[in-house]
Amino acid sequence: MNWRTLTTLALLAGALLAGWALWNQRDRGPATGAADSPPDYILNDFELIALDSEGQESFTLRAPRLERDPDSKTLDIITPVFVIPSKEEGGHPWEVRSRTGWVSAAGDEIRLRDEVEAVNGAKDDETPTRIATEQLDVFPEARRATSPVKVTVTQPGLIMNGRELVADLERNQITLKDTRTRYENTR
Questions:
Q1: pLDDT exceeds cutoff 70 at 4
Q2: Strand, helix or coil at 8?
Q3: C-alpha dihedral sign at 140, 143, 148, 149
Q4: 161-174 as b/e, with b when 16 or more CB fall inside 10 Å?
Q5: 85/183 Cα distance (integer angstroms)
Q6: Any idea where the domains of the chain sit in the sequence?
Q7: Which of 35, 85, 170, 171 is 20 to 30 A from 24, alpha carbon to alpha carbon?
Q8: Chain segment 18-63, per-residue pLDDT in tens
């Protein structure tokens, strides 16, 4: 073989190798997944009433924007305000707000994040309960809420700080771990 044939074969092998490398590193487009799917609908400045399996009001939601994921059927919400009614006659609803929210496809779990505040409305002769945290998971049908992070619970004359909140929203019973409590005279 002469040197021209060897050079041609070497250049051909190099071109094939370069083509194969470029083919394997090509842009294959966006990966398919729930995060890349556009919402199947968007609501702006709305009020929504969700019903439980028995047809009773589970919660009311007001927000400036909601997007529904078409794959998981979950809802992503900006600055939501949830009103969770009491099942007891004469009971008070909880009003829960945050910067962001997420609702499960079945509507049985609400995840609230960033500047979360929950307030239990009260009659004139009762005092409201206020919960402040950065993360709160609410289960409206069970009338229960949980938070693994730092939580502050206040009532007139009482401030409790702790973590790992478990709250029975129907009975207004709250449990915290690592609690520090401060009582103040309100008279």
A1: yes
A2: helix
A3: positive
A4: bbeebebebeebeb
A5: 29
A6: 39-183
A7: 35
A8: 777 777 776 655 444 445 678 888 999 999 888 877 888 888 899 9
d(Cα 169, Cα 185) in Å, to the nearest integer?
A: 26
Cα(71)–Cα(37) distance, rounded to whole angstroms?
8
What phi, psi does 156 have (nearest 5°)? -55, 120
Residue 140's closest CA among 177, 111, 99?
A: 111
The whole-model pTM stands at 0.71
CATH class held by domain 39-183: mainly beta
Which one, of 69, 62, 47, 52, lies nearest residue 96 by Cα? 62
Structural contact between residues 110 and 137, judged by C-beta atoms closer than 8 angstroms: yes
DSSP character string of 71-119? TT--EEEES-EEEE--SSTT---EEEE-SEEEE-TTS--EEEEEEEEEE
